[in-house]
Automatic annotation (TrEMBL), chain A:
It is a multi-pass membrane protein. The lineage of its organism: Bacteria, Bacillati, Actinomycetota, Actinomycetes, Micromonosporales. This is Xylose transport system permease protein XylH. The keyword Membrane applies. It is found in: Cell membrane. It comes from Micromonospora tarensis. The chain crosses the membrane at residues 21-38, 58-91, 103-132, 176-194, 214-235, 241-260, 292-311, 331-359. The keyword Transmembrane helix applies.
Automatic annotation (TrEMBL), chain B:
InterPro entries: AAA+_ATPase, ABC_carbohydrate_import_ATPase, ABC_transporter-like_ATP-bd, ABC_transporter-like_CS, L-arabinose_ABC_transporter, P-loop_NTPase. The keyword Manganese does not apply. Residues 8-245, 266-510 form the ABC transporter domain. Keywords: ATP-binding, Cell membrane, Membrane, Nucleotide-binding, Repeat, Sugar transport, Translocase, Transport. This is Sugar ABC transporter ATP-binding protein. PANTHER family: CARBOHYDRATE TRANSPORT ATP-BINDING PROTEIN MG119-RELATED, XYLOSE IMPORT ATP-BINDING PROTEIN XYLG. Gene3D superfamilies: P-loop containing nucleotide triphosphate hydrolases. GO terms for molecular function: ATP binding. The keyword Phosphoprotein does not apply.
Length: 432, 515
């Protein structure tokens, strides 16, 4: 479901990496369709879609935090280890110290916050590069996990497993579908329509003509159609399954963090720091605080991801979270973030993560071994970024972006510019 | 001079980019052994012309003909033109800071012995080249440890290592102080007497008038005229007329100051260097600003003007030691930039691209960046208000851009500066500190910026202008402080301000001669 909201955000977002993200959505749709055909309809079957979300929600949650870290100009290599470290402590807190599971979740988030504060302190206040701090953290917390758990697995109780493998409840009349999922889909559809109308209003307030009504209607129809399709798929699985709880957590986080990064001063400051930290500092941005919070937030999300994973696999083990950092970083860069910082969006990263996830899932359905899957994923990451770098060096936006230009123009109708007559003719000669 | 052989002739050069004709039918004739200046406003096509000449835009990508040393030249890249003895020294120096002078001079051109770099020979040759450009340093000194002026000389020495016949300098003195500029100009005169031809692009018309033999003026991608400095009796006004295509009756807008009472005061300001704590960069400095007043700070580069301004602006430079700031009769303590902004201070930095703007941003994001609270409600940014604020400033300051969604990286220097000014005007400051507000900006845009500064003063704000160009300070400011080695050495009223007096105060001890 989130991908549909993201598609919409990408269509209307105002960032420079728009075209790239646009391309990624089309790549995603294309990959889904290719696998759908190749696997004889297995890819879009309810049980597979549900599994896809459950298996990838924690990576996508990491990608949210990683996007903010990368936009601010840092990197976090420790997320997999932090997730594992939190997982083992939370598991232990429930089995050995008899903490009730809701308290254990709060405990887990607190662990994430403490670890994040530790890493943020070194990055923001001492000035050690995040690469080094989190490389150290990667070793530190991986070791910590195995030290605490004696390199053993620790199982977690039933209630806790809900956040990783639970589903929306069944209630109401027997419609043959999961009613909660249907309601969720309905809410999403309403939100999409409301957003489109809101966007039209905003554009009018900016003295710009909104896109013609039929485009808006077409846009809404496509979105609502996609939402309806997804809702029906998720609602029509095996009885007892529906849209997963971990997916709901993910969607809520995506909406909240997208809003934060796009529409609040705090979010803007992250982009400002990544774009030009000195200029940001001289504009009143508190550099250290931004860096500290970004690093800390990442560890909190890593703790959450770790708990969801433990809940899904029903136990915390010594190898949990191995290589997660790389998946999250890949998702962010495939989703259009700049290595140097300052550019990237949450929705782009989610799309990037989904591209990897669908690729992974589809190849596995076809019985392709993990060895080859890794090779393919590596090449996809390299090619996606290389294509973008190449196109930038050619002064073009991106191939996919230029294909979409007719759409983009529709979207970015320039506001009515003042008549040239009001400028002095002599000044007009002073060009740049 | 017509009897001197022609070294270079560019005939009806036309260069088009998609949608823009950057050069149309440009002609340039450079005679051997002269200093040829190319003048024109930003965007007139100077740099494009030099890129055509040096092969950055290879043969075939432009129309027209280049005749060099009597034969048609068809350069496919920079290497080809360098092999022919044409070397460009760009405004932004292409040196590697962490390498030594000798390593930089021979980068890509290393003297070899049996495949390995012969460092003995390199150092010997480097010393020889450095002597030719008057650079007295150990060739093993790292480039980052010498000043900009000397770095410029390293670039020139690098050009000599390639056996240069035609030296092209793009804004060579833009980043240099007066003394270094003078040294560089002397050096160019020396080259002329040794038969090396130079082409110089510069905005500093007084330097061009002083040094050039011929001046070719470009405007909007066309050749306007070529002037013979001696024969035509060219002066600055004559050049400006050619560049702008009209008489610029005055370089400063008319202005009658409306000066009120003192409202901002800095007393006994002491600041230490951020790294070497024994160095004091502000030595007991005190100054006042009145409402509606434009106050100048004159000083050589490195005198500590920027350091003073930034340390006052929320301690954004150095380590604060002592001193008080009094605004509207009350002492204020500014411990951070945010404090300074909240108390009505604004600082427009001297380095637009490095410190003033996030080049990834568009105009509207940049405009509101220093006071997001003004367009926020309960912490949520209002896009419409952001757009309206940016649009209002775009109109007021006549920023040339199609919309406020345009990326600031695509704007010219003058228009970028207007965006920076808008960003700080948006914070509703009482005191604006403008550090080199017209650096790298062409004549017409400068005039506009001066007008904006005067309007701000007329609104009752105090304005501090830091500038290395004395005519600018004299033409614009109501009162000028001179700064030398971290101390304020004089205060001169507008009526008494002339370059000689200022210069004397700016260089009040003998130490300067060695700088």
């Amino acid at each position: 479901m989130s991908r549909i909201k993201d598609l919409q955000k990408n269509l209307f977002g105002g960032t420079t990496s728009n075209a790239r993200q646009f391309g990624m959505i089309f790549t995603l749709v294309a990959i889904v369709l290719i696998f759908q055909i190749w696997t004889d309809g297995l890819t879009l079957r309810s049980d597979n879609l549900i599994a896809l979300f459950q298996q990838n929600s924690y990576i996508l949650i990491l990608a949210i935090g990683m996007l903010m870290v990368i936009v601010a100009g840092h990197i976090d290599l420790s997320v997999g280890s932090v997730a594992a470290f939190t997982g083992i402590l939370v598991a232990k807190s429930m089995t050995e110290w008899d903490l009730p599971w809701p308290a254990a979740i709060v405990f887990g988030l607190a662990i994430g916050a403490v670890i994040g504060a530790w890493q943020g302190f070194w990055v923001a206040y001492i000035g050690v590069p995040a690469f080094i701090v989190t490389l150290a953290g990667m070793l530190l917390f991986r070791g910590g996990n195995q030290f605490i758990g004696n390199a053993q697995s620790i199982p977690v109780p039933e209630g806790f497993r809900e956040i990783g493998s639970g589903f929306l409840p069944e209630f109401g009349p027997n419609t043959g579908y999961n009613n909660a999922t249907l309601l969720l889909g309905l809410a999403a559809a309403v939100a999409v329509v409301w957003r489109e109308l809101q966007a039209r209003k905003t554009r009018r307030a900016m003295d710009a003509d909104p896109a013609p009504m039929w485009i808006s209607i077409l846009r809404m129809a496509v979105m609502v159609g996609a939402i309806a399709f997804a809702a029906l798929r998720f609602a029509s699985g095996r009885v007892g399954t529906s849209f997963p709880i971990s997916g709901i957590i993910l969607v809520a986080l995506v909406i909240a963090y997208s809003f934060y990064t796009r529409n609040t001063a705090g979010g803007r400051h992250i982009y400002a720091v990544g774009g030009n930290s000195r200029a940001a500092e001289l504009s009143g941005v508190k550099l250290r605080r931004v860096n500290f919070l970004v690093m800390m937030n990442m560890s909190v999300l890593a703790a959450l991801a770790g708990m969801i994973f433990v809940a899904r696999s029903q136990a915390s083990g010594p190898q949990d979270g191995n290589g997660w950092e790389l998946d999250a970083i890949a998702a962010v860069f495939i989703g259009g973030a700049a290595v140097a910082g300052g550019i990237g969006t949450i929705s782009g990263s989610i799309v990037g993560g989904l591209v990897m996830a669908v690729l992974n899932n589809g190849l596995q359905l076809q019985g392709v071994g993990t060895d080859k899957v890794q090779i393919i994923k590596g090449l996809v990451l390299l090619l996606a970024v290389a294509l973008d770098v190449y196109n930038k060096s050619q002064g073009r936006f991106s191939i996919i972006g230029s294909l979409m230009r007719p759409f983009r123009r529709e979207d970015s109708t320039p506001p009515a510019s003042p008549p040239d007559a009001e400028r002095e003719p002599a000044k007009a000669a002073v060009s740049g | 001079m017509s009897d001197v052989p022609i070294l270079l002739e560019m005939r009806s050069i036309t260069k088009e980019f998609p949608g823009v004709k950057a050069l149309s039918d440009v002609n340039l004739v450079v005679r051997a052994g002269e200093i040829h200046a190319i003048c024109g406003e930003n965007g007139a096509g100077k740099s494009t012309l030099m890129k055509v000449l040096s092969g950055v835009y290879p043969y075939g990508s432009y129309d027209g003909q280049i005749v060099y040393q009597g034969a048609e030249a068809r350069y496919s890249d920079i290497r080809a033109s360098e092999n022919a003895g044409i070397v460009i020294i760009h405004q932004e120096l292409a040196l590697i800071p962490g390498m030594s002078i000798a390593e930089n001079i021979f980068l890509g051109n290393e003297p070899r012995k049996r495949g390995a770099i012969d460092w003995k020979a390199a150092n010997r040759m480097a010393l020889d080249l450095m002597a030719r450009v008057g650079l007295e340093e150990d060739p093993d000194t790292l480039v980052k440890d010498i000043g900009v002026g000397k770095q410029q000389l390293v670039e020139i020495a690098k050009a000599f290592a390639k056996d240069v016949k035609l030296l092209i300098l793009d804004e060579p003195t833009a980043a240099l102080n007066e003394a270094d500029s003078r040294h560089l100009l002397d050096l160019l005169r020396g080259f002329r007497s040794r038969g090396i031809t130079s082409i110089m692009i510069s905005h500093k018309l007084n330097e061009i008038e002083a040094i050039a033999d011929q001046i070719t003026i470009l405007r909007d991608g066309r050749t306007v005229e070529t002037l013979d400095v001696k024969a035509d009796g060219v002066d600055e006004d004559r050049i400006v007329r050619g560049m702008v295509g009209r008489e610029l009756s005055s370089r400063f807008p008319d202005h009658t100051p409306k000066i009120g009472d003192v409202f901002f005061e800095v007393r006994n300001w002491n600041v230490r260097h951020p790294i070497s704590a024994e160095r004091q960069v502000c030595k007991n400095e005190s100054f006042v600003v009145r409402r509606g007043e434009i106050v100048g700070f004159a000083g050589l580069m490195g005198a500590g003007r920027t350091e003073l301004a930034m340390s006052v602006f929320g301690r954004s430079y150095g380590v604060y030691e002592s001193g008080t700031i009094i605004k509207d009769g009350k002492e204020i303590v500014l411990k951070s930039v945010a404090d300074a902004i909240d108390n009505g201070l604004a600082y427009v930095s001297e380095d637009r691209k490095a410190l003033g703007l996030n080049l990834l941003d568009d105009i509207k994001t940049s405009t509101v960046a220093a006071k997001l609270a003004k367009i926020s409600h309960h912490g949520v940014l209002n896009e419409v208000e952001e757009y309206q604020a940016a649009e209002a400033y775009r109109k007021e300051l006549r920023t040339k851009a199609p919309t406020v969604d345009e990326s600031v990286s695509k704007l010219s220097g003058g228009n970028q500066q207007k965006v920076v000014l808008a960003k700080w005007m948006f914070t509703d400051p009482d005191l604006l500190i403008l550090d080199e507000p017209t650096r790298g900006i062409d004549v017409g845009a400068k005039y506009e910026i001066y007008g904006i500064i005067q309007r701000l003063a007329d609104q009752g704000k105090g304005v501090i202008v830091i500038s290395s160009e004395l005519p600018e300070l004299i033409g614009l400011c109501d009162r000028i402080y001179t700064v030398f080695e971290g101390a304020i050495t004089g205060e001169i009223a507008r009526a008494d301000a002339d370059p000689e007096t200022l210069m004397k105060q700016m260089t009040s001890t003998k130490k300067l001669a060695t700088r």
